Amino acid sequence: MKTLKERINTEWLFFDGALGTMLQKKGLAAGQCPEMWNLDHPEILIEIHKAYLEAGAHIINANTFGANRCKVENVKEVVTAGISLAKQAVQESHRQDAYVALDIGPTGKLLAPMGDLDFEEAVSIFAEMVRAGAKAGADLVLIETMSDSYEAKAALLAAKENCDLPVFITFIFDENHRLLSGGSVQSVIPMCEGLKADAVGINCGLGPAQMLPIIKEIVQISSLPVIVNPNAGLPRQLGNQTVYDLSDDEFAFWMKEIAALGVQGVGGCCGTTPSTIKTMVQTIRNCPFLPIAPKKMTWVTSYSQAVQIGPKPVVIGERINPTGKKRLKEALRNQEYEYILSQALEQEIAGAHILDVNVGLPEIDEPSMMKEMICQIQSVTACPLQIDTGNIEALEQALRIYNGRPMVNSVNGKLESMESVFPLIQKYGAVVVGLCLDEEGIPEQAEQRVEIAKKIYHKAEEYGIPSKDVVIDGLAMTISSSSQAGVVALETIDQISRELNGYTILGVSNISFGLPQREIINSHFLSMALTKGLSCAIINPNSEDMMKSYRSYLALQALDPQCKGYIEAYGTVPTQKFTDSSENMTLKQAIQAGLKGRAEQLTLELLNQKDSLEIVDAELIPALDQVGKEYESGILFLPQLLMSAEAAKLSFSAIKEKMPQDNKVAKGRIVLATVQGDIHDIGKNIVKVLLENYGYDVIDLGKDVAPEQIVSCVKNENISLVGLSALMTTTVVNMEKTIRLLHEQAPHVKIMVGGAVLNPEYAKMIHADHYAPDAMGSVRYADQVFLKGQGE
Ligand code: B1M
């Protein structure tokens, strides 16, 4: 009999449909933990599983989606029961061809630095589920509904490290083809391939019609079988019930279209039922099955960006490497992370596609510094990284916590190097740089270097690393000591790319060590190497000469359609997020870049020149507005939004310390809250500080506060002014609800509202007493209510 891994790329594999919505139909109440039904209502789970088996599903998801220790206390018991029930259903249905999946969903928490869940803690949460599931007899692990690549990586590692079962993973993409944390098809699929998932795909969030264009993208780049489990269309509220808009026939129609795109596994998610799956199975069963073909694509990715090696040369920023850089050495020794982060941002802005990160100094603990730097750099830039180290421990730690699929610099032709580096590349997945040197040293002839490259390719293949993921470094040595060095490096690049069809890389600047005006040689050498087929150039992207050579090459080689990139760079004065030196950065820019320490320091400096509120209005709010706009237009993603918010908070803490506190006499008590469903509290916190500074006693109920809680506080504390904040169109309805409840139950209280999404007209419409456009406006209104006794 074929194994599951063999089956998935040779015949249709049908997945089951929704479990959660089925359980709700059977009486699962809102707020109840579905997984606890494994213990409380086993017969209902067996009944649902059997119905899906009857419908023709091969893969039955055990009821373990949220059975992790963030949500249930007895993980082992709940997982074991879930798997056993699914197995019992399979047995009782006499289905030899069906499999039970340990279903793993997200933890519901954000991973650091976005949230506070540590990466290794996330791995351990998933590992606990995997061990329990495998022991209970699951046939596969299905990680699903992943909306963050980092959490997906944690789950994949946990699965691969704790069982030998096939591991499938599916993501929840939105209509912009992005994960919540910004991941794209091109960034997450290669990462999953690298981490040795056995199949990848998409589930939930959208109906089959909306998924279609995303699936096309997945099938185009995936070498792994593709699974598609959509919702039964888009959700709609019918009374207090959520219903989905596709009939079984409509769902099957769209799934047939999807099947024709060349996917291998199909099933359903929210809103689908056994009858949906039955109609789908009957429709697709006889459709031609297309196996997925391996793709010759090489991707280096971060959590949201993907750089493809091959189609056009890639720029790798060399600035985060202490060799010959006094200031960087100092920053590394003194742990001045902000300096290093600004180096990363500068290179990104200058046009680097990937950033090299080398922190090797004899006197520092390289593994822990490398780990720290990778985390920190990834929290301010989405540029993919090249982990540059000869220290195997540093390499492993960095590969483990890196969010995406990195590049690794480097392995070489020495057996010892290959035997220590390749197992790590094999486990974590990365594109690796292979240096043309071995036990005999660096060959003087190109032909000998090419022989070493072949040896590296060959050994890599033994570890299951395809040649497409090995980028050969032809080794640029300085021409000041060997006049043949340039010729040999260029010949090596030429032979590797032409004869072996391989990818190549050069540390370009090495060519000119010891020479004056090095950039003259460097930029010419770069142009020459590019014409020989160089795939990746490690250069200083801040050097105008180097980027001029690079951009001109692209334009001349027809790699820059309509010379768009060239014109963008040189047609007008380029707009920059900040100037080329972090010394000149403004507070606004530091907040936009998410540089917390720099934002705090600049705030302290500004406080000597400007009034606190002026800083809030001129720097802090415009910075967040800009970030908000870029987020909305898909230029930035949630991680960057969060980092900017953190920087703004730190800046405001510094402002708060310095705010004058003249009016100490208590003028009155005010309740403040951000309304239910809304976690934006920066504005509300500013309002609070200002009201306090103007002598009011503020009871701050925090964010995401239920209407009932606000009402009860107002009543219990006998409050006469409430301030509500809301930042989202979706949460203004809760503001309205709160106001209605307050009018009903505490008619004496005055209500002021604020937040970027509101305006005076809207405030009136929802029956607020006052709209405060900013924090000072809230003070003026409080004065009116308490001092003049005349709130509108
Ligand atoms: Co989000 N976010 N965010 N966000 N975020 C907005 C609001 C958004 C407009 C960005 C965008 O898309 N352009 C958008 C809402 C779209 C809409 O509904 N119209 C949005 C979204 C969609 C989201 C998420 C859904 C993203 C996601 O997860 N996919 C998510 C929502 C989570 C949730 O609430 N359930 C989310 C999350 C976040 C972060 C956590 C990353 C972070 C918040 C961190 C925090 O607050 N602790 C964040 C941020 C920072 C923003 C932006 C960029 C900035 C908000 C801010 O702090 N502004 C924002 C875009 C924007 O507003 N331009 C955006 C600075 C602050 C000082 O201004 O709050 O307006 P503001 O307060 C002012 C005045 O309005 C007034 O005084 C303050 C000082 O002058 N004021 C009051 C405010 N409240 C008042 C109350 C008063 C009186 C005056 O009386 C009581």
Automatic annotation (TrEMBL):
Residues where Zn(2+) binds: 204, 269-270
Top-rank taxon, per record: Bacteria
Pfam families linked to this entry: B12-binding, B12-binding_2, Pterin_bind, S-methyl_trans
Cofactor(s) needed for function: Zn(2+); methylcob(III)alamin
Pathway: Amino-acid biosynthesis; L-methionine biosynthesis via de novo pathway; L-methionine from L-homocysteine (MetH route): step 1/1
Residue stretches making up the Pterin-binding domain: 313-560
Residue intervals of the Hcy-binding domain: 1-284
Family stated for the protein in its record: Belongs to the vitamin-B12 dependent methionine synthase family.
Protein function: Catalyzes the transfer of a methyl group from methyl-cobalamin to homocysteine, yielding enzyme-bound cob(I)alamin and methionine. Subsequently, remethylates the cofactor using methyltetrahydrofolate.
Cross-referenced SMART domains: B12-binding_2
Protein name: Methionine synthase
E.C. designation(s): 2.1.1.13
Keywords per UniProt: Amino-acid biosynthesis, Cobalamin, Cobalt, Metal-binding, Methionine biosynthesis, Methyltransferase, S-adenosyl-L-methionine, Transferase, Zinc
Domain (B12-binding) ranges: 667-792
Originating organism: Faecalicoccus acidiformans
B12-binding N-terminal domain span: 574-667
SUPFAM superfamilies xrefs: Cobalamin (vitamin B12)-binding domain, Dihydropteroate synthetase-like, Homocysteine S-methyltransferase, Methionine synthase domain
Reactions accelerated catalytically: (6S)-5-methyl-5,6,7,8-tetrahydrofolate + L-homocysteine = (6S)-5,6,7,8-tetrahydrofolate + L-methionine
